[in-house]
Amino acid sequence: METKEELLRIIDLLNDTYESEQAWHGPSVVEVLRGVSPKLADKRISPSTHTIAELVFHMTTWRIFAVRKLQGDASFDIKTKEKNWKTFALVDEFEWETLQMELSLSQEELISELEKRDSDAFLDQIVPGRDYSYYTLLHGLINHDLYHAGQIALIKKGLSSSAFQDDNLEDLEDSGTFGENFEQYN
Q1: CA distance 186 to 176
Q2: CB neighbours of 133 closer than 8 A, spacing ≥ 6?
Q3: Model pLDDT for residues 20-79, shown as the tens digit of each residue
Q4: What is the structure's pLDDT at 166?
Q5: Stretch 1-9: mean pLDDT
Q6: Which residues pair with 126 in a beta bridge?
Q7: pLDDT of residue 167
Q8: What confidence tens digit (pLDDT) does each residue in 88-145 have?
Q9: CA dihedral angle for residue 160, residue 162, residue 166, residue 168, rounded to 10 degrees
Q10: CA 113 to each of CA 50, 67, 110: distance values in angstroms, whole numbers, following the listed order
């Protein structure tokens, strides 16, 4: 008899990372987004950093990627910057609510796809169009969420400091604040 013990652990990790209020690693994605206003979601710490809105879009994009791969779609990919890192002219109340709702729906769809699986066996299969397993994809998604939740927490903290309260962000020197190679890490 095949089991799905590992899959159930992965589902628990995905849910804890996304919405647990008692995750051992710190705030979940939902917790770190709590209290973020559209204005805050649209701000940058420096010109080369992402906004919280862009990070939420990016996280949603990779959840959708995982869902499509779980559905067997070998041709679906995220090859353009616009599909991966969409920029927004303005993040208003409607846009911010939409971004958060899309993230939530992509989480629900991901968990729903995983719950359809009968056993752990599929975790060793290669993701269509890639050279890694579903196990790697799902753990990668968990790590991806943790990384970006940490970024969002730092952005929130940074933007709430007195240096950013006057909305004059142009005075910050990009390379002095985050280093010249910051873009390669996001």
Answers
A1: 17
A2: 123, 124, 125, 126, 127
A3: 888 778 899 999 999 999 999 999 998 899 999 999 999 999 999 999 999 999 999 988
A4: 53
A5: 88
A6: 133
A7: 53
A8: 999 999 999 999 999 999 999 999 999 999 999 999 999 999 999 999 999 999 999 9
A9: -90
A10: 30, 7, 5
- Give the model's pLDDT for residue 164: 59
Ordered DSSP codes for the chain: ----HHHHHHHHHHHHHHH-SS-TTS--HHHHHTT--HHHHT--SSTTSPPHHHHHHHHHHHHHHHHHHHTT-SS----SHHHHS---S---HHHHHHHHHHHHHHHHHHHHHHHT--SGGGGGSBPTTSSSBHHHHHHHHHHHHHHHHHHHHHHHHHHHSGGGTTS-GGGS-HHHHH-TTGGGG-
**What pLDDT does residue 174 have?**
39
Residue given tokens 């940058």 in the structure block: 44
Report the alpha-carbon distance of residue 43 to residue 143 in Å, rounded: 24
* Range 5-160 has CATH code 3.90.480.20: no
- Measured distance CA(144)–CA(129) in Å, rounded: 20
